[in-house]
Amino acid sequence: MPSNKSLVLIALMAMLAWLASTSFFVVSEQQTGIQRRFERVVDGHLAPGLHVKLPIVDKVVLFDKRMQTSLLDGRTFVLSSGEEILGDLVATWQIDSPERYDSARKGDENKVAHELMQTVATQLTEQMSHLTLADLSTSRQDQALQAVRSVLDSRLHDTLGVTVTGVAFRRITLPDARVADVEQKMTAAWQHDATTATSDGQDMADQVRADAERRKAMLLATAHENAETARGATDAEIAARYNDAFTRNPTFFRFYQGLKTWREGMQHGNGVLVLGPEDDLIRWIKAGR
Predict the structure, then answer these.
(1) Is 50 exceeded by the pLDDT of residue 129?
(2) How many CB atoms lie within 10 A of CB 95?
(3) pTM for the full model?
């Protein structure tokens, strides 16, 4: 059974271990925080490293000091022309005053992010009122966002204990009514272009068809003229050959012509020739007997 001395020693060692575990704490490189004593801040910006605190009396609250990102979707902005746009915003920020940040959050980690994005949107609304829809695709949008960040730097440091490192639009869209109006106008423009293109195409087709018909008529006329010319030349050559044959042997020529006439008249089997008794063909037939 342990002696009283041993029990006291064990209790003393346990107390020392408890004091050691509750009297020291470590702040990492990615953290910052505050140390309070009886609700009074004794260190409002804890640096990375090993720190000492009084057990039970001191309270330590640590925060992530890395870059944070907050979003705000569907915010309406009115441009200088009176047109409305819908913008999805993104802001990057980090804690630079842990004491102010802890006071602003009031125990709610989302409270600071919400207030920060509302402030960003309010400042951006003022800047956007000087821009047109066309400016949103130019450097003027970047200038407006930079102006918002410059204004927020000092203001949010004092109220929320944070520094805004960037503000940007994730997306910009038009309201549904405006989108429908744009689509209707685009559809009407497309239909007009399609009708114009169809009309122009029909006119062009008619012109091509008329040109083809004209070329066809010209080619046919030329072909007919060439054919007539060739036929005339052939007939002239045949006539010349007949004349030459007749000149050389009139009797044989008349006989050949008679045979030709006989063949053409009797080729169908029912032809009738009317010949005189003195016809050359009759004489040739008689002579052949």
Answers:
(1) yes
(2) 24
(3) 0.55
Quickly state the pLDDT bin for 267 (edges 50, 70, 90).
Answer: low
What is the C-alpha separation between 156 and 163, in angstroms, rounded?
7
Residue 171 has φ and ψ, to the nearest 5°, of: -160, 145
Q: Are strands 40-43 and 58-64 parallel, antiparallel or unpaired?
A: unpaired
In the numeric block, the tokens 């520094």 are attached to 163
SS (H, E, C) the chain: CCCHHHHHHHHHHHHHHHHHHHHEEEECCCEEEEEEECCEEEECCCCCEEEECCCCCEEEEEEECCCEEEEEEEEEEECCCCCEEEEEEEEEEEECCHHHHHHHHCCCHHHHHHHHHHHHHHHHHHHHCCCCCHHHHCHHHHHHHHHHHHHHHHHHHHHCCEEEEEEEEEEEECCHHHHHHHHHHHHHHHHHHHHHHHHHHHHHHHHHHHHHHHHHHHHHHHHHHHHHHHHHHHHHHHHHHHHHHHHHCHHHHHHHHHHHHHHHHHCCCCCCCCCCCCCHHHHHHHHHC
Are the beta carbons of 111 and 146 closer than 8 angstroms?
no
Q: Which residues contact 64 (CB under 8 A, 6 or more apart)?
A: 30, 31, 95
| Tokens representing residue 26 in the block | 């470590």
